[in-house]
Amino acid sequence: MSLMTVKEVAAYLEIKEARVQRLERESLLVSKDKDIEGNPLFDKDDVERYKVLAERLGGI
């Protein structure tokens, strides 16, 4: 399992970091762990699956 930071997820999905944090709060993108500062960390496979699903539904 490869973990991604909020910044990495935002860059991968081409959205703002605040949007990634909102997706996590709304449980649309589930974090797997927290870093030492308490920021969410996401599984790369989950992020990739989310991107595919979002594109099928009309965009992120």
TrEMBL record:
It comes from the Bacteria. Pfam families: MerR_1. InterPro entries: DNA-bd_dom_put_sf, MerR-type_HTH_dom. Residues 4-52 form the HTH merR-type domain. This is Helix-turn-helix domain-containing protein. It comes from Alteromonas aquimaris. The lineage of its organism: Bacteria, Pseudomonadati, Pseudomonadota, Gammaproteobacteria, Alteromonadales.
